[in-house]
From TrEMBL:
It is found in: Golgi apparatus membrane. Belongs to the glycosyltransferase 31 family. This is Hexosyltransferase. Residues 17-106 form the DUF4094 domain.
Length: 393
């Protein structure tokens, strides 16, 4: 019995030693692994490293995105050059569009000549159309004796200055009418008419205005087109100087802008049959140039020429013209020198060094009694005979 108990105790001591050796071996093995592969970072160390990496990336991005001062100047220079190039291209495109529209207008109005080649339009600075009627022979003579050059001077003005001046008139309702023959005979003497494909009539002025601009655009490639009544005194030199100030602007509409009441009363002189289109009673028209004289640039005249079949005509010609430009990108230029009064108004302004472009009496919608008074107005308010030749544009 005794030996048996001694053997069991010996086995227990041996097992304890083996366990102790296994623990030491595990400890040393752990130390070996730690030395070879580095320490395992704790959560605080990881957080700091991520923060440092984000700062480095942010600084790098800022450095790349931020141009140097020299680069700033280079970029601004390129932007300026690009802007100038865009402006030049826009102007070129506008010019090409106007030339294309004018050519199309010319072909539509007069067709093409033999061989399919359209007639070449004459270059001009301005075409001035003097609105007149069959019964206005004496008015025309008064204009010829005052502010409108005649004969060789008229031709010289056209050739040297590019200023075209014509009385504009249509035809009577019947062919070979005595009225038409009288105009033909008058034109044989003065050669200063522009005949329109239009039946004359006071209540057809809106239609006549459309046809005048369309015909003028088909015949002359001008910078401006002007309509003036035959009972208005005009200083051509001042008109040319005024237009010259706006030559580089696209789509300009120049005149004395007004906004009169819409008259629903049928007995009123300027009754508007379509008054209901302008809203409630007492409303006013949109801004438009008074009908005695106004000027429009080439592209607006071409627009009228191309679209004349669908442009609506109101009872009053000046309202119609203003309506055609509603919705377009048009610059309205209100020039009060184009609607001076007759003496003493225009005389005082001339003495003060501000010669008027045009003069008339508002109460008469023109110079009152123009046959008798136009010479008087001319003597008091004229710019002088040489002004037209020295005018620059």
């Amino acid at each position: 019995m005794k030996p048996k108990n001694g053997g069991a105790a010996s086995e227990r001591r041996l097992l304890s030693r083996r366990i102790l050796l296994l623990c030491f071996a595990s400890f040393f093995l752990g130390m070996l692994i730690t030395d070879r592969f580095g320490s395992v970072p704790g959560p605080v160390v990881v957080q700091h490293r991520l923060h440092d990496r984000e700062e480095l990336q942010s600084v790098s991005e800022k450095f790349v995105a931020r141009p140097k001062p020299a680069e700033d100047r280079d970029i601004m220079g390129e932007v300026s050059k690009t802007h100038e190039a865009i402006q030049y291209l826009e102007k070129s495109i506008d010019t090409l569009q106007m030339e294309l529209a004018a050519k199309r207008s010319s072909n539509e109005l007069h067709g093409e000549s033999a061989g399919g080649i359209s007639t070449q339009r004459k270059r001009a600075f301005v075409v001035i159309g003097i609105n007149t009627a069959f019964s206005s022979r004496k008015r025309r003579d008064s204009v010829r004796e005052t502010w409108m050059p005649q004969g060789e001077k008229l031709k010289k003005l056209e050739e040297e200055k590019g200023i075209i001046i014509r009385f504009t008139i249509g035809h009577s309702a019947t062919s070979n009418n005595v009225l038409d023959k009288a105009i033909d005979a008058e034109d044989e003497i003065h050669h200063d008419f522009l005949r329109l494909d239009h039946v004359e009539g006071y209540h057809k002025l809106s239609a006549k205005t459309k046809i005048f601009f369309s015909t003028a655009v088909a015949l002359w490639d001008a910078d401006f087109y002007v309509k003036v009544d035959d009972d208005v005194h005009l200083n051509i030199g001042m008109l040319i100087a005024t237009l010259g100030r706006h030559k580089l602007k696209p789509r300009v509409y120049i005149g004395c802008m007004k906004s009169g009441p819409v008259l629903a009363d049928k007995n009123a002189k300027y009754h508007e049959p379509e008054f209901w289109k302008f809203g409630e009673d007492g409303n006013k028209y949109f801004r438009h140039a008074t009908g005695q004289i106004y000027a429009i640039s080439k592209d607006l005249a071409t627009y009228i020429s191309i679209n004349q079949p669908i442009l609506h005509k109101y009872a009053n010609e000046d309202v119609s013209l203003g309506a055609w430009f509603i919705g377009l990108d048009v610059e309205h230029i209100d020039d009060r020198d184009m609607c001076c009064g007759t003496p003493p108004d225009c005389e005082w302004k001339a003495q003060a060094g501000s010669v008027c472009v045009a003069s008339f009496d508002w109460k008469c919608s023109g110079v009152c009694n123009p046959v008798e008074r136009l010479k008087y107005v001319h003597s008091r308010c004229s710019e002088g005979q040489d002004a037209i030749w020295s005018a620059s544009f």
